[in-house]
Design a protein that fits this description.
The structure holds 2 protein chains of 2 kinds.
Chain A (H helix, E strand, L loop, with lengths): L18 H14 L12 H12 L5 E2 L31 H7 L8 E8 L5 E8 L7 E9 L2 E3 L6 H12 L15 E8 L1 H8 L20 E3 L14 E5 L23 H8 L4 E7 L6 E3 L9 E2 L6 E2 L2 E3 L3 H18 L5 E5 L39 E3 L14 H21 L19 E5 L6 E5 L2
Chain B lengths: L8 H14 L26 H6 L9 H18 L10 H4 L2 H12 L6 H16 L6 H6 L3 H5 L37
Helix pairs in contact in B: 1-3, 1-5, 1-6
The chains are: A alpha+beta, B mainly alpha.
Pfam families (chain A): GMC_oxred_C, GMC_oxred_N
Cofactor (chain A): FAD
Family (chain A): Belongs to the GMC oxidoreductase family.
């Protein structure tokens, strides 16, 4: 993946980054979170059906490595917005408490709007504070002085902050807000025939059911990597992963196979929803063409908020290219071949007609690289032409990875830290790179949040 | 039809008819005009679609009256160009037969329609009412026999309101591993 060229005709990644050079940083992240290798006992019914179907079709399948404390996990499948059991080994249990113990202040609900230079050459980071319930309501505003700024607002927000800062910081590199990648992501829903699951795959839960377990699990637990082959042409490589989204987000775009009327709403959609427990969601992570471009920034935040928290509308445009669509078509056909074989299920991709393309792993909108024309950051993660500003989130990753990008994003961030420390030292900050890893916590801490009711601090659970 | 503060009876009927087009359900009684009765069991309306549309968290409450008026405007236009003679006793969208409601919804929800975003948002709320009961805590929705969650076979929580599935795995190897799996269990 690190040798990808995309459509720019040269290596997208900085030449100093290879799998070998990044491996020590992957090791640090795996230890810090910690990530553990999954075994078949960790694979949920949904992952098991997918693995068995892969095997039946002559493919391989693997339990996926994950940072989950399986002793605490209840397989409730509500993991998308956190974990009330602290089983999901998120940053709440490692990097964040370690940072707090080293003096870091965490300011929940503070939304950075823009960065400017102070009179003495440092930075002023301007923020607003949003209401804990209604994010559309601004309850406070302020600015923080800094000698170094590390932007990690995510690939959907980092470029927007930088765009908005142009007025005071000066022009941004061309690649800020361009080359956005959706990690080539796409979803298919298979509606399994329970009898065929039993007869063809020989699966039985032991309670009289073959599957009927869409609700049970912990997100992805099994994946197939047969198309992750570096000798294959670019835009034809992808991984397939069993995945789960709760109803709502996980159902709205699913289409009824063979629908004569509308496929994503209406009578036929309701019929497939009645079989929801027999659904199996398959996630494609492929190589897209970095075709996303951000328009002008909205007045605040990275999008105009419609709902208090859930819905908003941003200025990102993403028209999938022929290259991207080619990979999706190959992967769709592969999924059908695996999961429609011998009548196991009927499969349909999620519709792109309702909200356009979609992704859960946005990347590359402020990317690293060696070429100033096509990258916003140099190989140290520093923003070109704006020394002292570093970007360490998914926006720094140059392009689609064909796998879940979280591990690579974290490894790139770990790799950037010595560079950030050196930049801080050069500005007279008394700081050293020690290379300590955060100790693991079992229980997340509570975070102080200022409520909108008279500015009285209240404490809310931080997940 | 239920009473909803801030919306006229015609507006509620119109929004209900749209929600019923997205996830159809059975009529609530012999005089139900908003729900077309195109499917068995409770649909989006019986699952609380209008309650969800009106929820302050959702952000649509302030524009529901104009969305209802917009639907009726589109329905008037649809009826005129397809030669229909709608019943004046009910709002124009409600007057449409189910198949015509579907055909009009497909136009409004289709790529390229200038108002697609609006109608997709309203459709999302209709869908979510049925398959999440998002205007209620899921525990309460399950206890109340929420039509959508019940029809989907959504499994209930433990008595303390928390979902736990101690049995979750077939517990055996089900495929050959990829030959280039790293010692950490990742793809090479």
């Amino acid at each position: 993946m690190f040798d990808r060229q995309g459509s720019i005709g040269r290596r997208m990644w900085p030449k100093s980054i290879t799998r070998e050079s990044l491996d020590p940083w992957y090791d640090r992240v795996a230890e810090a979170l910690p990530i553990t290798r999954g075994g078949w006992d960790d694979v949920t019914y949904a992952g098991g059906v997918f693995a068995a179907a892969c095997h039946h079709a002559g493919r391989t399948a693997n339990p996926v490595a994950a940072a989950i404390d399986t002793d605490l996990c209840t397989n409730c499948n509500w993991m998308m917005s956190g974990c009330r059991f602290d089983a999901k080994r998120s940053l709440l249990l490692n990097y964040l408490p370690a940072a707090v113990d080293h003096g870091a202040q965490i300011r929940p609900l503070h939304e950075v709007q823009r960065i400017e230079r102070s009179a003495d050459g440092d930075f002023l980071v301007h923020y607003t504070v949003v209401d804990p319930v209604d994010y559309r309501v601004r309850v406070d505003a302020g600015a923080i002085e800094a000698k170094i700024v590390v932007v990690a607002a995510g690939a959907a927000a980092t470029p927007v902050i930088l765009q908005r800062s142009e007025q005071t910081l000066g022009a941004m590199p061309y690649a800020v807000g361009r080359y956005f990648s959706g990690n080539g992501e796409r979803l298919n829903t298979a509606i399994l025939d329970e009898d065929r699951v039993r007869d063809v795959l020989g699966l039985d839960r032991g309670d009289g059911l073959a599957y009927a377990a869409n609700q049970i699990g912990r997100g992805p637990s099994a994946a197939s990597w047969d198309r992750l082959d570096g000798s294959l042409p670019e835009f034809s490589r992808y991984s397939l992963e069993q995945l789960y989204f709760p109803p709502g987000f996980g159902t709205i775009l699913a289409q009824a196979p063979g629908a004569e009327g509308p496929s994503w709403f209406g009578v036929e959609k309701k019929e497939i929803l009645r079989r929801w427990q027999s659904w199996l969601t398959i996630f494609i992570m492929s190589e897209d063409d970095n075709e996303g471009v951000f328009g002008p920034p909205p007045s605040t935040g990275n999008a105009d908020r419609i709902s208090m928290q859930m819905l908003s509308r941003g200025n990102l445009r993403y028209e999938p290219s022929a290259n991207t669509k080619h990979g999706w078509a190959l992967a769709d056909a592969d999924i059908r071949d695996i999961l429609e074989r011998d009548g196991l299920s009927r499969v349909m991709p999620w519709t792109n007609e309702v909200i356009g393309a979609y992704t859960v792993h946005p990347l590359a909108s402020c990317r690293m690289g060696d070429d100033p024309r096509t990258s916003a950051l140099d190989e140290t993660n520093e923003l070109r032409d704006h020394p002292g500003i570093f970007v360490t989130d998914g926006s720094a990753v140059p392009g689609a990875l064909t796998v879940n990008p979280a591990f690579t994003i974290a490894a790139i961030a770990e790799r950037a830290v010595p560079n950030i420390v050196r930049a801080a030292q050069a500005r007279g900050v008394d700081v050293r790179y020690l290379g300590w890893l955060p100790p693991a916590a079992r229980v997340s801490r509570e975070a102080p949040v200022t409520s909108s009711a008279g500015g009285v601090p209240v404490t809310v659970r931080s997940v | 039809m239920d009473d909803f503060e801030g919306l006229s009876a015609d507006q509620v009927m119109t929004l209900e008819a749209y929600a019923d087009t997205i996830i159809p359900g059975e009529r609530r009684g012999p005089t139900d005009r908003a729900v077309a009765g195109a499917a068995d069991g409770g649909g989006a309306v019986a699952s609380g679609a209008v309650e969800l549309m009106l929820s302050p968290e959702g952000g649509l409450a302030g524009v529901l009256d104009s969305l209802a008026e917009g639907l009726n405007e589109h329905a008037r236009d649809y009826a005129a160009r397809t030669g229909l003679d709608p019943d004046p006793a009910v709002p124009p969208f409600v007057a449409l037969e189910f198949a015509d409601r579907v055909a009009l919804a497909q136009e409004l929800l289709g790529p390229g329609h200038p108002e697609q975003d609006l109608w997709v948002a309203l459709a999302m709320f209709s869908t979510m009412a049925w398959d999440t009961g998002a205007h209620m805590h899921t525990v309460d929705a399950m206890a109340a026999g929420h039509p959508g969650l019940t029809a989907m076979g959504f499994m209930p929580p433990d008595p303390d309101g928390v979902w736990r599935f101690p049995r979750f795995s077939y517990g055996r190897a089900l495929a050959a591993l990829h030959p280039r799996t790293t010692p950490r269990g990742d793809p090479q």
